[in-house]
Each structure stands twice: as structure tokens, then as C-alpha cells.
Amino acid sequence: MIGLYFFGYNIGRIFGPEYLLRLFLAGAMSGSVFYLVHHAFLAKCHQHLEVLLENIPTMFQSSTTAESCFGAAIKVHWNLVLMRV
């Protein structure tokens, strides 16, 4: 659609106004379909994410490890840096 905004005049002049109208309508319809599919996908993922966030405290309630994962992340990053040298 941005391309039609910038190049619509030239496309209409070269291919004709009917072609430009068809191209514009096809872009609008396909954009609408992708928008609906995207939001349906996000709604499904949102429900799963809420369930996961609600279950995290019960998943790790019996864990005896008190340290954070930040130290392990730093070690992995440092090893990756050393491997590039």
C-alpha cells in the first residue's frame, strides 16, 4: 500500500486506472485478511501465555536453587565472545 502511495500515479499512467484500482482493492483485501489472521493468532497465544504465567509459581515451588540465572547467562556470553577471538 505504501508502494501504491508513492508509485500509484506512475502505475496508473503506465497500466491504466482500472489496473490501479484492481491492484488497490487486492492490496486492501489481502491486508484485511492478514490482519484478521494475525489477531486470531495473537488471541490464541495470549490465552496460552496467561495459563503459563499463572502456573509458574506452582511449577517452581519445590525448587531448592536460590541463585539466579544471570550468572549462567554471563558465562555463556563470555564463552561466545572467547570463541569469536
From TrEMBL:
Annotated InterPro entries: Rhomboid-like_sf, vWFA_dom_sf
Protein name: Uncharacterized protein
Cell compartment(s), UniProt: Membrane
Transmembrane region(s): 20-37
GO cellular component terms, A-Z: membrane
Keyword terms: Membrane, Transmembrane, Transmembrane helix
UniProt key word Transmembrane helix: yes
Membrane topology: Multi-pass membrane protein
